[in-house]
Specification:
The complex is a heterodimer of chains A (110) and B (117). Helices cover 0% and strands 55% of the residues of chain A. With 110 residues, chain A is an all-beta fold. Chain A is globular. With 117 residues, chain B is mainly beta. Classes of the chains: A mainly beta (110), B mainly beta (117).
Chain lengths: 110, 117
Amino acid sequence: ILNVEQSPQSLHVQEGDSTNFTCSFPSSNFYALHWYRWETAKSPEALFVMTLNGDEKKKGRISATLNTKEGYSYLYIKGSQPEDSATYLCAFSGYSTLTFGKGTMLLVSP
Amino acid sequence: DVKVTQSSRYLVKRTGEKVFLECVQDMDHENMFWYRQDPGLGLRLIYFSYDVKMKEKGDIPEGYSVSREKKERFSLILESASTNQTSMYLCASSQGRVRLSGANVLTFGAGSRLTVL
């Protein structure tokens, strides 16, 4: 079973703060790295899928970077809002199925 | 706008009961997955299927079986439920004609929270 680590485990910030999370994964046999957002009582929804070393993706105030050689990805949220409160999951693929990290739980207070 | 539908949001069953969790997707996706989510453990893959009547074990298949008789439907079966199967179960689907593609986005259902007493 592959080891996908996410840090921090949880984070509590104030509205307007910028924040970032880390996902570490095996640097060998890399195929893709996914980020999902999972809000309470809802389905996890995809944020980004990255496949190339150096990839950077952006969606509104959220962006992600990928370093496949050293095996990590960062997720950034600029100017956090209460609606950003969710668990953020990363998942590593070595071609077929995804291995998920345990997630980072973000709470944004007004 | 619902794309992946799980039949039951909450279930309470007794130890030893046979439990069926149903999942239906309307996106014509080839691949379907069953995960369970437990506190501190993250999402773990139970079984997946890349075609009708095809199934493959994930990381934690023990105590579970699956059925995929139609492309849109993937069922998770607990033959004899046990208390350690109390969990949140998530179904997901993705497209991909070449068996599986790890770059394809998963679309998840809303989850089924199972409690086994």
